[in-house]
Every structure is written in C-alpha cells, then in structure tokens.
Amino acid sequence: MLGTKTIGRLLIFGLGYVAGTRAGRERYEKLQVAAGGIARQLRARLDSAADDPSSVVSSVRRSWDDSDIKLGS
Q1: CA dihedral defined by 62, 63, 65, 69, rounded to 10 degrees?
Q2: What DSSP assignment string belongs to 21-49?
Q3: How far apart are CA 13 and CA 19, in angstroms?
Q4: For a FRET experiment, which of 8, 10, 32, 57 has its CA 20 to 30 Å from that of 48?
Q5: What DSSP designation does 70 have?
Q6: What is the rounded CA–CA span in Å between residue 61 and residue 69?
Q7: Could you tell me if 70 and 35 are in contact, meaning their C-beta atoms sit under 8 angstroms apart?
Q8: Nearest to 47 by CA among 37, 32, 62, 33
C-alpha cells in the first residue's frame, strides 16, 4: 500500500509536470510568432531590394521562386 508521503510526492510531481508542460507550450508559441515576424521582415527587405533592377538581390530573386515555402503550421 502507498504511504501518504508517496502519494504527496506523486501529487507534487504531477502538478509540476502539468505546470511545466503548459509553460513550455506557451514559450514555444512565443518563439513561433517571433520566427514568423522575422521571416516577414526578411521577405519585406528582399521585396524592397528586388525593386532595384541593379541589385544582386533582384537577379537572385527573379531566378528563385519561394512561393512553395511555408513557415509554421
């Protein structure tokens, strides 16, 4: 039979596990949003540089189609 100390420890472990899992998920979602923002900023910079026909970015951009790249889920 389990003692009261064992049950208490299991309860504390379970609560800690649940709290840690939730905190980890929230952090993952924040990182995902931040990565999406960085990708949007980089894409905007590439688009603005592609408007200049003399830039190297413009020639690379014309030869590389990134429309099939999806970030996130």
Answers
A1: -110
A2: HHHHHHHHHHHHHHHHHHHHHHHHHHHHH
A3: 10
A4: 32
A5: -
A6: 14
A7: no
A8: 62
Describe the chain by its helix, strand, coil percentages, rounded to 5.
Answer: 75, 0, 25
What pLDDT is recorded for position 33? 92
Q: Where are the domains of the chain?
A: 4-48
What is the average pLDDT score of the chain? Answer: 80
| Residues 11-32, mean pLDDT to the nearest whole number | 89
Q: What is the DSSP letter of 68?
A: T
**Where do we find the tokens 């951009």?**
61
**Residue 44 pLDDT > 80:** yes
